[in-house]
Amino acid sequence: MDKKINLSQLADLMSQAGGMSKAASEQFVKNFFDIISQKVLTDGLVKVKGLGTFKLIQMEDRESVNVNTGERFTIEGHQKISFTPDVELKERVNKPFAAFETVEISAEQADKLAQMEKEPVAAESIVQDESQTVTAEPEKESANDAKPVVKEVTQRRGVRFLLKFIVWILSILLVLVIALYLFWPLIGNRVLERVERNIQIRDKQELVVPQGSPVNVQPADEQPVKEQPVKEIESAEVEQETAEPEIPEPVVTEPAVTEPVVTQPVIKPQTETGETKPAVTLDVRLNSKDAAKDLTEFTEADTVNFAMTGELTVHTLKKGETITRLALRYYGTKKLWPYIVKYNNIKDAGKLQEGARIRIPVLKAK
Amino acid sequence: MNNKQFLTELSGKCQMSADQAAEKVQTLMEVLEKIWQDGDSVSLSGFGVLEVKKKNERVSVNPTTGVRMLVPPKLVLTYKPSTILKDKLK
């Protein structure tokens, strides 16, 4: 992926494919491109069937501004080599995105889209961070999702604030306990009496407390009692937070948008699995940790309304494959992974085992 | 220069028949296509780089009607001539 293939590598591949010797194919490839680059200079146009057209075009003089000084200057007219790929080749290269169509949108939605681009929304930035793929991310859905995403963000902010608050309280408590321990001699007497009383109230046989040591017994007793409930709350809180996004609900309640903006990619049952791979998926290999992060932090807002109609195929999970990767492979976009999760009732997508059988649903745009 | 002329030139240089050359071009195209589908780029000194690039989706406006269109993202094969070739242009 993302390699640069040079002449000798190309000749290698060519000799493998065509039953030619390496030297002959290298010579051939060299001649092939030499002729193009020579003839485009002399003839001004080279058409190669299957590849495209190379053309020499004249650029007119134009004015430009020096960015540093603000000075105006003219860029002299020059000649440029343009390349237009063959229509067939163009279509085949664009195959992963072939399902998309140009759509008309209203001015309002266009504005919304522009806004979405300006402010980086949490969910989308994650997608971009997580692997620098040049993959199919139909970000067109964003117009529909503007509202839910915002809601989600505020919700998350609230949870974060709560967490911070709890941690704060906890630390204050800790400081108090430490202070109590340090300034024990000052207030010790009073508490000592209480401790003695407590011990008497309790089972008398339980512990014979040496006169000097109740000092130590007290804080040890009190500390856990004070802290436990708070800790419990905290852990419960944390659990809630993690649990929430783990149950992805693909069906998004749509904000009142009257026109459907998005062309839903039409998902066809693809038989040739080798060819379904998007051409430029560069680094889809996420490890399971990444996938878990992906799954927990992904918002439901990134999905659109699809209905699951029947089963496309059953996929046996190989090493390094994740649900998102399957979504990418079968639907051309990572964002549709929640449907696979839902269809299979997967509890924790980060803990899938190699060899697990994943059923892939057929998605149909609602 | 059209395809036929190109093939004649190529066959002359490689000492083979035009049919053979056409066949070889065919296999070369298949190999190239495979490379591009894998997301790799072909870089040849003296010629340039042929690579597939992703173009993001964008909103375009029809200047006469003012209709806004959302143009989907696409993968496009691009060609960037090498500096050697560019220098020859001057």
Key terms for this structure?
heterodimer; A: 366 residues; alpha+beta; HU Protein, Chain A; 3 domains; 12 helices; 9 strands; B: 90 residues; 2 domains; 3-stranded antiparallel beta sheet; two-stranded antiparallel ribbon; 5 strands; 31% strand; elongated
How do you describe this structure in short?
The complex is a heterodimer of chains A (366) and B (90). Chain A is 50% helix and 14% strand. With 366 residues, chain A is α+β, with helices and mostly antiparallel strands.
What features would you describe in this structure?
- The complex is a heterodimer of chains A (366) and B (90).
- Chain A is α+β, with helices and mostly antiparallel strands and 366 residues long.
- Chain A folds into three domains: 7-95, HU Protein, Chain A (Irregular), CATH 4.10.520.10; 107-141 and 264-365, no CATH class; 157-246, no CATH class.
- Chain A has helices spanning 7-18, 22-42, 87-93, 107-118, 122-130, 142-182, 184-201, 214-246, 273-276, 288-297, 323-331, 337-344; strands at 4-5, 45-48, 52-59, 62-65, 72-75, 78-85, 103-105, 306-316, 357-365.
- A three-stranded antiparallel β-sheet of chain A has the order 2-3-6. A two-stranded antiparallel ribbon of chain A has the order 4-5. A two-stranded antiparallel ribbon of chain A has the order 8-9.
- The model of chain A is unreliable at 121-150 and 212-302 (pLDDT under 50).
- Chain B folds into two domains: 1-39; 41-90, IHF-like DNA-binding proteins (HU Protein, Chain A, Irregular).
- Chain B has three helices and five strands, in the order ααβββββα.
- In chain B, strand 3 (58-61) and strand 4 (68-71) form a beta hairpin.
- The longest helix of chain B is centred in the N-terminal third of the chain and has 20 residues, at 18-37.
- Chain B starts with a helix and ends with a helix.
- Chains A and B meet through strand 1, helix 1, helix 2, strand 2 and strand 3 of A and helix 1, helix 2, strand 1, strand 2 and strand 4 of B.
- Strand 7 of chain A pairs antiparallel with strand 4 of chain B, so a sheet runs across the interface.
